[in-house]
């Protein structure tokens, strides 16, 4: 039996489908297990971690926010404050830098060298800069403050964000920019009213990556924040697991609460994120 050009044989389709289903189950299993554990008692989890719940134990979520000793909402607010500040810094600076490095009419002498520095910064292992960052924040008087992790998170996100936006700005036809300049539009107007709306998918991608990176970061916050009142969600989640005791049900509930905003934001902007990540993929 001949196979038409562009069509896959039936066995190929079945094999790919089985592989994708198996891969999806493998990826989703830890999340489903976490969700199930969040509505079980810790004693039941210890007896049989993989069992299904015999009854739904919503008290884990109620205690998470109602117990004054935990005050989980305070850590949630801290994460929102830090992440919002990082997004504002990263989106504003990376859009300006990406626009300047991505458009030919802004050519300057050390342009390639500057972009190379941003690329080189991506090659430095984050673990190699923990101690220098710690000493730097102490010398600046920023240790044990939200500003310390806001600045560091922003700095870590900028290089990748600039690279993404530069690549996207390079794909925008020059005619759109030139026609606005001929009509008398200033550089500020061209950037804010023409280029940024066109680059919205790339901005969404940068925002999502920065949001996830800042929301989930643990080690730098652990290094720079010793005051519990300033802890972010990842730090607060560590309290439920100790050397001598562990509240697995509460830990799982805190993970569900922490992951929920990330999932919601991604689902809201998934289409634009995929559009930005695949830009230029079909160019010949």
What are the salient characteristics of this protein?
globular; mainly alpha; MetI-like fold
Structure description:
The longest helix is centred in the N-terminal third of the chain and has 31 residues, at 72-102. The chain is mostly helical. Helix 3 packs across helix 13. Residues 280-284 have low confidence and may be disordered. It folds into 2 domains: 10-59, no CATH class; 68-277, MetI-like (MetI-like fold). It is built from 13 helices and no strands. The chain has helices at 10-37, 42-47, 59-66, 72-102, 111-121, 130-139, 146-171, 174-182, 187-198, 200-216, 219-224, 233-237, 248-277.
CATH class division of the largest domain: Mainly Alpha
Second rung of CATH, namely the architecture of the largest domain: Orthogonal Bundle
Main β-sheet, in a few words?
Answer: none
Number of strands: 0
Task: Count up the domains.
Answer: 2
Order of helices and strands: HHHHHHHHHHHHH
Share in helix: over 70%
Give the termini distance in whole angstroms: 33 Å
Rg over CA atoms, rounded to whole Å, is 24 Å
Uncertain residue ranges? 280-284
Mean residue pLDDT: 86
Beta-strand percentage? under 5%
Number of continuous helical runs: 13
CATH topology (fold) name of the largest domain: MetI-like fold
- Structure classification: mainly alpha
According to CATH, the homologous superfamily of the largest domain is: MetI-like
